[in-house]
UniProtKB/TrEMBL annotation, chain B:
It is found in: Cell membrane. Keywords: Cell membrane, Membrane, Transmembrane, Transmembrane helix. The chain crosses the membrane at residues 21-41, 288-312, 332-358, 378-398. This is ABC transporter permease. Residues 21-240 form the MacB-like periplasmic core domain. Belongs to the ABC-4 integral membrane protein family. InterPro entries: ABC3_permease_C (IPR003838), MacB_PCD (IPR025857), Macrolide_Exporter_MacB (IPR050250). It is a multi-pass membrane protein. Residues 293-408 form the ABC3 transporter permease C-terminal domain.
Amino acid sequence: MIEIKDLHKSYQMGINSLHVLKGINFNVNEGELVSIMGSSGSGKSTLLNILGMLDEADSGSYFLDNIPIKNLNEKIAARYRNKFLGFIFQSFNLINYKNALDNVAMPLYYQGIKRKERTDKALHYLEKVGLADWATHLPNELSGGQKQRVAIARALASEPKVLLADEPTGALDTKTSYEVMDLIQGINDEGKTILIVTHEEDIAHMTKRIVNLKDGLIIDDGIVEQVRANSYV
Amino acid sequence: MFNIERWQEIFETIRKNKLRTFLTGLSVASGIFILVILLGVGQGMQNGIAEEFEGDASNSIWVWTRPTSVEYKGMNPGRFFSMTNEDFDFIHKTNEDVIEYESSRVRIWNATISYKKESGSYRIEGVFPGFQFIENQSMVSGRFINQNDIDEKGKIVTLGRKVKEALFKNGEDPIGKYVKLNDIPFKVVGVYTDKGGEREEEQVSIPSTTAQQVFNRGQNINNLSYTLKPEKDFETAVAKSEEFVASITRYLKNKHVIAPTDDRAIGIGNSLEQAKRFYSLIFMIKAFFWWVGVCTIIAGVVGVSNIMLIIVKERTKEIGIRKAIGALPSSIIGMILHEAIFVTAIAGFTGLIFGLILLEIVGPMVKTDFISNPSVNFNIAITTVFILIIAGALAGFFPAWRAAKIKPIVALRDE
């Protein structure tokens, strides 16, 4: 599903150049649940941003579902993001003047789907994350865990090939974190490919594979025994 | 523009962000409102001044004589002279093609006019039929002096409204009655009013020829009055009247042996020249109001731009989110512009309508000499609304464009 070869990225910090990714080689197959770990500054968020087409690599190749992701202009990047990717952020990034349902329906708006169908689909995904009763609530009327679940529903709504989660539990307490992970595991069970960036060991062990980054290089990449989140709840 | 989904999205955004929308709208609406009021007052001033001028026909010319001031051909300065019927006839003959109405005037100051027991001291004007039009007198009853009266030197008189009121106390109809002008009976044939003011109604008119005969003026006249034929535009009219004035001055100076350099001997009043000054005053006033109006519009545009900048700044994160979930840059720009244009258009027309309503209600109540019937050219008002809408769109475009270019990763970065 994802093929990355020799990916390099550096940032210009004044006169100094900061080499963040120093040649990443990395494949993800369909249906995998991968966590990317590393201390802050290891380059894990940069990697995720490149995977998410929010940022572009300096060199190296990136194939998503056998499509080369290269020299994207804004327009194509936007279309690919909309078609292929679903984002889950640490700070949820919901639009605060839209209710849960409208937030979930938004990627569908940009797919050009009619209002009626949009609402039906959005409601379906809200049901899936267990928030159908909260459809008309604004984000600030929801708890952190609920917000993240709305965000997950939104990420799912566009039926993407890959879900990218940047510290999805970073702003949540342990119990809520496990609930969210339980949901993510459930989605993965249905066959969705999911990448999670995290620095929490316990969260990482709830995935099926852990990739360890350090100073811009993969130092460790292995399959792990998945811990089911519902065993904690 | 006619994408129903887009409209729903815009309406939702507007409904959820009432304060922001209100502030944008307020600056636009007040800008247009002030402009409409200013233009209205400007127009009102123009109307007011125009009305002040309606008193006399606005292209009239008066000629009178004064003692000479320059020694010429052996004659001392300070010499009195008088125009005669011959002058009047000559000017008539030589300028027939430009003159519309003409009248010589023989003036008798402070004549005693009496009817039965009532009497008073008034001015008598010995005039020609054209005088009625030159002075813009309108007949309340009866008729004015006609050519027949001139030819026959008829002892008839038309009374100013004030004179009639003073002499004919209890509503008696003066037509056909005889009044005495310095003890000479004249038959009243008409009563007139004059918008030029009460002073012009405190006089009576008799045929010029009669005045010369009855009051021993010989061939002398005090005064010449003319109005000129209307021209196709104001500038031509002014040029023609100046030419006319120059020609009669030349003739009179030559005829009465007056130095060409003597500027005092012949007095000339040219209302067109005055009108020209007033028109340029009106022009200045209008220009001033336009200037203030344009400044108001600029202030409005700056206000709208400011608010648009703040809105876009405030929405940076939202834009980042929208882009992350697949919004095209063009749809971001479209969204912001669409909203900006919609809000400025609604607000602009609201301001316009309120301004027009205020002018409509308050306008007729304003009763000063210099403002009358303030109103505004609807086309101009509409045009300014569109200018403001376009300006709002432009003002919104650049921040929107910049926002659409922000990478979502930058917009989404936690502060």
